[in-house]
């Protein structure tokens, strides 16, 4: 049994000391290895950087379409800033005249292409780097594609 370092509840599954509920509510994901090349800052030559994974705030209506926010079901959710998310398919049963459906949804629990900001401790310059470009799925359903650029000739 582990105690979550944020909410102080005992839990069976805590990654990096944070329980699943806190991880979901705050948009916390496991950090990949740094991808920025180990070079000094191009502006001030400092060698110390702070790596930050920005998060986006979403407003979620947790009730049915009919009731909406009337009963205070609006809540916020934070997700990491990424290139895209994996798709998950949800089966909905037939209701009245509406047939059963097999609909795709973006799964906010499966981010792909995690963005990181590297902030120079010396001058404050910021670099944006995608930490996991190999994990980005390609296709129109993810709003991604590959653009090949021809190699340039010799510099003269």
Please give the structural blueprint:
Elements: E1 2-3, E2 10-11, E3 14-15, E4 18-19, H1 20-26, E5 49-52, E6 55-61, E7 74-80, E8 82-92, E9 101-120, E10 126-130
Antiparallel strand pairs: 1-2, 3-4, 5-9, 6-7, 8-9, 9-10
Characterise the protein shown here.
The chain has 156 residues and is mostly beta strands. The chain folds into 2 domains: 1-30, no CATH class; 31-142, no CATH class. 4% of the residues lie in helices and 40% in strands. It contains 1 helix and 10 strands. Strands 5, 8, 9 and 10 form a 4-stranded antiparallel beta sheet that branches. Strands 1-2 form a two-stranded antiparallel sheet. Strand 1 (2-3) and strand 2 (10-11) form a beta hairpin. The longest helix has 7 residues, at 20-26. The model has no long low-confidence stretch (mean pLDDT 85).
